Amino acid sequence: MRRPAYQNRVTKLREKLAGIPSDTLWIMRPENRRYLSGFKALDTQIDESSGSLLITEKDALLVTDSRYTTEAEKQAPDFEVMTHKKGLQESLPAILARLGTKDLGFEEDFVTWSLFRELKKNLKKSSSPIRLTPIKGLVDKMREIKEESEIKAIEASADLMTEILSEVIPTLKPGRTEKEIAWQIEGLAHEGGADGLAFASIVASGPNGALPHAVPTDRKIRGKEPIIMDVGVKLDGYCCDMTRTLFLGTPGPKFRKIYRIVFEAQQRGLERVLAGVKSTDPDTSARDVIKNAGFGEYFGHSLGHGVGLATHEGPRLSPEKPVKLEQGMVVTVEPGIYIPGKGGVRLEELVVIEKQGPRILTKDRHYYDFTD
Amino acid sequence: MRRPAYQNRVTKLREKLAGIPSDTLWIMRPENRRYLSGFKALDTQIDESSGSLLITEKDALLVTDSRYTTEAEKQAPDFEVMTHKKGLQESLPAILARLGTKDLGFEEDFVTWSLFRELKKNLKKSSSPIRLTPIKGLVDKMREIKEESEIKAIEASADLMTEILSEVIPTLKPGRTEKEIAWQIEGLAHEGGADGLAFASIVASGPNGALPHAVPTDRKIRGKEPIIMDVGVKLDGYCCDMTRTLFLGTPGPKFRKIYRIVFEAQQRGLERVLAGVKSTDPDTSARDVIKNAGFGEYFGHSLGHGVGLATHEGPRLSPEKPVKLEQGMVVTVEPGIYIPGKGGVRLEELVVIEKQGPRILTKDRHYYDFTD
């Protein structure tokens, strides 16, 4: 991203300060941090942060520890980088006093219960009257609507994944293991310049395909059975996510039928991924196809989710909690049917909602026409 | 691990129920979940759990969603697997009512503020009088003292890493990039049957070595400069962690001196990694060597940390918050000196505390004798 993009985002975020009690926003979630500042570091684990942002009407701080100071200064030149010595909770009261904070907004979906309590205790110890107010999805909501440059970045990520698949698919043959294929994908992602995988590849053959989140095993793939490949890379920070179900030979009538139903469900779902429509609509349309075909109980998950700096983000395309879909959102549409002990079929596209309708970002066309 | 190991751990955890207000423990942290049940799934992200345990005096439930039911049943046969349909928070009140819970202990370092609030709200809605009580490090503390089979697992992990290093080091030569070397390590980890890396490899050459958490770049390694390799694999769930600083030619007097100081600091630190000693002691011993040599300001991080199912766990060997070191703990000892713009030296061993003293688990011996 160019620097002005970051500056614009901070400006937009500041405009939101007027509508909430907080005068200072404390941003810890790595994707939100990166979105606003350009600071790329990830966190080692939930209780080991590589830094956080403090944003007020006029100040923009990036508070980190000595391990990250140099990177932070280089990657986030619009932010004043402060290095704390004794842990963030210990240092925050003094920093907030300097900022003149009266009400600190914290990310309620990311801050742990103990971090909240520690901070509260430390503020009390320093006799600080600062209030702590939860903020929910302020930056996350901004991230749901992608900028032009972000859509390009996601498309580039999907293009790389398409290239990788077109290299891998011709090499699939009976006897290769799921793990081998997953590793081949990882190697090609590396060669293609990806930051890494967006998530651990799913290569699930035969009965393993009945587990929607299967981990690749030493099972050898065979002819005629469905092989689910749910894969994505991360390129310049942006993720992609796509699923194809492949067969090494023409499957029997049952999986031909299931494949047709899932494909039909995907098409009906895609048609409803429109600006102004409720996020539950595409799920209902797709789910109805599967239900009406008698496979309702074999489709247990939601239809899709947003994709961007994170593989899973808003909006969710699920049967519940409707929100309005908007132009610039990037979502997956991924219905599936999973028959325990037998196998599954899932077909996933990644689309951006444009004025005219959904535009598919995954150019791969490895679909079958199983019309009987 | 054999099944009885899991059963013993649950029994030990149950013994702790007597000393706390909670009658039901809610275990969400993936490593704790695996430690108690054998359920191996990871979480996609902090707000996307693959399941949690509910343990009472007589019940042991694993609550998950349909994506993970089959794996959960296979991997955690001692637990009753329950599949929720509408999200954990929504389902918990009914499950807790069935268990007869009066006080639910939740992991305060893992449960987010919003998850806590949601659960509280849902309990209220169902007119449930169940209290929520934070638990801190109950299972994490158990994990700090490794069982014999766990030490073997960590040692096997360290052995694989040693093998990988002994394959990589002879191939280091000027002109290869940090990224290439990091990828070579990842490939060998895969070939060696690792679950994956324990953490993203650090290969930091020349000035990049001054960043303790450097990310591999396209920089080509050169003769005479220090190259920090901080690497670890995960094997059967268990991590290892080791650091060597390598040179392609004999370095100049400055880095020879720094290397000697760091090595000396490591030795002094290792001597104090003893059962019964305070966790701050090894840090002080190592840090004093570096301070006395005039490099105190260039050693900003703690001396070490526990390693097991997680790469970073308790106990911490830091200058603060002393705890007593005990037999069976597995910790790193990793002093370093980092000169901004020039480079760094870090030397890290992984040791288990035995009755007789520390036993080094990393058999690699790529050290230099830079005695002048």
Report on this model:
- Two copies of one chain form a homodimer.
- Chain A is an alpha+beta fold and 372 residues long.
- Chain A folds into two domains: 4-143, 3-Layer(aba) Sandwich (Creatine Amidinohydrolase, Chain A, domain 1), CATH 3.40.350; 148-360, Creatine Amidinohydrolase (Alpha-Beta Complex).
- Chain A is built from ten helices and 19 strands.
- The first copy, chain A, has a six-stranded mixed sheet, sandwiched between helices. Chain A has a three-stranded antiparallel sheet with strand order 7-10-11.
- In chain A, strand 16 and strand 17 form a beta hairpin.
- In chain A, helix 4 packs across helix 5, helix 7 (148-168) crosses helix 8 and helix 9 packs antiparallel against helix 10.
- Chain A is elongated and about 75 Å long.
- The termini of chain A are far apart.
- At the A-B interface, helix 5 and helix 8 of A face helix 5 and helix 8 of B.
